[in-house]
Amino acid sequence: MPTTTDFLNASGWVGITTLALAAITVLGFLLKWGIRFRLVGITGFLGVLTGGLFALGLVPFTRTVIPGAVRYSLVFDNGGTQTVIAVPPTIDSQALEATMQQAASDLFSYGRLGRQDDKLTIRVRTNLHPEPGVTKPLYLGQIERSLSSRTDNAMEIKLNPESIAQLPGSRGEEG
Q1: What's the start-to-end Cα distance of the chain, in Å?
Q2: Rounded CA gap, 121 and 134, in Å?
Q3: 53 and 124, same structural domain?
Q4: Where are the transmembrane segments (predicted)?
């Protein structure tokens, strides 16, 4: 994965190319070349590309990895305050909490539309198949985090113990 240094390095080289092409464009106008207007377009495009690469060089690419988290799939996301993820039915409560924290980290974005409460709510569900051809959706819990701060130490995790007890391999099933 490219790092911020790679993007800054690339923006430097593309910037030099943009300046060289700008000089050729000025020369094209002085000598009335037939491609002078195309050179203006190419120079403008390289200018935009340079700006984009420079911006990517300023933003750090960090992804927090929560130990014990399992893969999840995003089921619903309204782009604002509500999301739903699905986890495998074989998950245990420790992995569920880690996965909820991982999803809260992954789905955070400053571009989300906050409303009155300024909280991102991520609901977690799984699907059980008690018999062939029958699917039973099971709500396992939710996590709420701040939409304004990337490092939210006050995330609220609410688990649904009755649903967790229905998972295959859970202690609630045996007792």
Answers
A1: 48
A2: 28
A3: no
A4: 12-31, 38-61
Query: Among the three residues 32, 58, 84, which one is the final residue of a domain in this structure?
Result: 58
C-alpha 144/C-alpha 111 separation (Å) is 17
Dihedral over alpha carbons 147, 149, 150, 156 (to 10 degrees): -70
pLDDT digits (tens, 9 = 90+) for 30-46: 999 999 999 999 999 99
Range of the domain at 99: 73-174
Cα gap 145→81, rounded to integer Å: 10
The model's pTM is 0.65
The number of distinct structural domains making up the chain is 2
Is 64 a member of any domain? no
Q: What does the pLDDT read at residue 100? A: 94
Confidence of residue 114 (pLDDT cuts 50, 70, 90): low
pLDDT for the residue 115: 62
